[in-house]
Amino acid sequence: MTRAAVLAGVGSFLPPRRVTNDDLAASMDTSDTWIRTRTGIRQRFFASEGMATSDLAVEAGAQALKSAGETSADAVVVATMTPDRPCPGTAPTVATRLGLGGVMAFDINAVCTGFVYGLATAQGLISAGTADRVLLIGAETHSSVLNPDDRSTSVIFGDGAGAVLLRAGGGDELGALGPTVLGSDGEGADLITVRAGGSRQRLSGTAPDPADHYFAMQGKAVFWHAVTRMAESCRAVLERAGRRLDEVDRLVSHQANLRIINHLADELGVPRDRALVNIDRVGNTGAASIPIALAEADAEGVLRAGEHVLLTAFGGGLTWGSTVLTWPGLQRT
Amino acid sequence: MSTTTTYDQLVDILVTRFEVSREDISPDVTFEALEMDSLFLVELLLVIQSEMGVTISEDSASPSDTVGQAAKLIDAATAAAGS
């Protein structure tokens, strides 16, 4: 019998520095009203000086292990576009600091879709028998790459980490991951990017523009692709799972922008109140956004055992992906 | 489809989906004047695509366009798709 990956624990961590819209408006040409009406965001959290992505990942990972009642895992996967450094990956450091030195550990970069790509990866590791318990962590320190002169991106992104522990189990158990639909389109590679720092720029023979070290995004085109791709992949994954849209109790999309979340719900015909929303409190936390939303909703009792959950994300690459699961009853930590 | 019908449909979408007051809308009013920025325009084109079955690329309308111009754009796209 094929082994399924079963969600057994969740965790999240937000760095202590809370930054309100008014705080941002003090140093750039923006306002609380402008940010709220265009993004739905009221505040976000930024890492303090001296913190890095692994610091956030360790906290969220420890919480997910505790939530699952586990003290160890056989694999640590970190989904991030803001690793501690270009080389080596962040996951081995995270694994060792969690006391899991020696286990397989690697990073995934599918930008904001990283967590959903990570779920598919964990599912593969478990179903192939390579691992029995996979700790998957989405973690970002976007504040390290935000351009202070670009108000369109600086107001959207926040730092944070979210994690899940997946264990081997049966496909009919609560928490078993269903099919996953993933996709990408390199034609849109320039729509969401940090241009400098990689081989393309380093071997170009010219020094980078200082702005190329920062994150850049073409908002209009991204909005269009995000809604279209997430809607398509949601429909595709539900069809593969043999479920209907009206059976979706909770739509958990990447927290990109409240307007994208609402538009996606409308496009799918899912009532907006079934969409989990925490972007108002944490901003867009990239690969961490879905597991943070899951951990918070579970802790608040918003997600209940037996609910049909549809997860979907879109990010740079371009990349997108969706999966389904039935929410398990988790131990409260 | 006549321009009047398309315009009326567009007005209905603006009122029901974008919470714009009906009395603020006229054929000559710009999206900018309705406080709709370029992202709202993209959202509007996505709604038009799903509700009216017309695909218009996200860079073909701007906030300085009027509601009347957008209705004509939808008609032109409908005609092009049908030809």
TrEMBL record, chain A:
Q: Which gene encodes it?
A: fabH
Q: Does the keyword Transferase apply?
A: yes
Which proteins does it associate with, and in what oligomeric form?
Homodimer.
Q: Where is the Beta-ketoacyl-[acyl-carrier-protein] synthase III C-terminal domain?
A: 238-327
- Beta-ketoacyl-[acyl-carrier-protein] synthase III N-terminal domain sequence ranges: 106-186
Q: What is its main location?
A: cytoplasm
What does the entry's domain section say? The last Arg residue of the ACP-binding site is essential for the weak association between ACP/AcpP and FabH.
| Entry annotated with the keyword NAD | no
Q: Where in the cell is it found?
A: Cytoplasm
| A Pfam family | ACP_syn_III
> Function, please?
Catalyzes the condensation reaction of fatty acid synthesis by the addition to an acyl acceptor of two carbons from malonyl-ACP. Catalyzes the first condensation reaction which initiates fatty acid synthesis and may therefore play a role in governing the total rate of fatty acid production. Possesses both acetoacetyl-ACP synthase and acetyl transacylase activities. Its substrate specificity determines the biosynthesis of branched-chain and/or straight-chain of fatty acids.
Q: In which pathway does it act?
A: Lipid metabolism; fatty acid biosynthesis
- Region span, ACP-binding: 255-259
Task: Give the keywords, sorted.
Answer: Acyltransferase, Cytoplasm, Fatty acid biosynthesis, Fatty acid metabolism, Lipid biosynthesis, Lipid metabolism, Multifunctional enzyme, Transferase
The family assignment reads: Belongs to the thiolase-like superfamily. FabH family.
Single GO BP term: fatty acid biosynthetic process
InterPro entries (UniProt xref) = ACP_syn_III_C, ACP_syn_III_N, FabH, Thiolase-like
A Gene Ontology term for the protein's cellular component: cytoplasm
Q: Name one GO molecular function term.
A: beta-ketoacyl-acyl-carrier-protein synthase III activity
List the catalysed reactions.
malonyl-[ACP] + acetyl-CoA + H(+) = 3-oxobutanoyl-[ACP] + CO2 + CoA
Supply the source organism for this entry.
Answer: Streptomonospora mangrovi
Name assigned to this protein: Beta-ketoacyl-[acyl-carrier-protein] synthase III
Annotated signal sequence is none
Q: Could you tell me the EC number(s) of this protein? A: 2.3.1.180
The catalytic site is made up of: C112, H254, N284
Its lineage opens with: Bacteria, Bacillati, Actinomycetota, Actinomycetes, Streptosporangiales
What EC class does the entry list?
transferase
What the entry lists under NCBIfam families is as follows: fabH, PRK09352.1
TrEMBL record, chain B:
State the Gene3D superfamilies in the record: ACP-like
* Pfam families tied to this protein: PP-binding (PF00550)
Domain Carrier: from-to ranges: 1-78
What is the protein's name according to its record?
Acyl carrier protein
Specify the signal sequence span. none
Q: Which InterPro entries does the entry mention?
A: ACP-like_sf, PP-bd_ACP
| Species | Streptomonospora mangrovi
The protein's superkingdom reads Bacteria
| SUPFAM superfamilies with a match to the protein in the record | ACP-like (SSF47336)
* PROSITE patterns referenced in this protein's UniProt entry, alphabetically: CARRIER (PS50075)
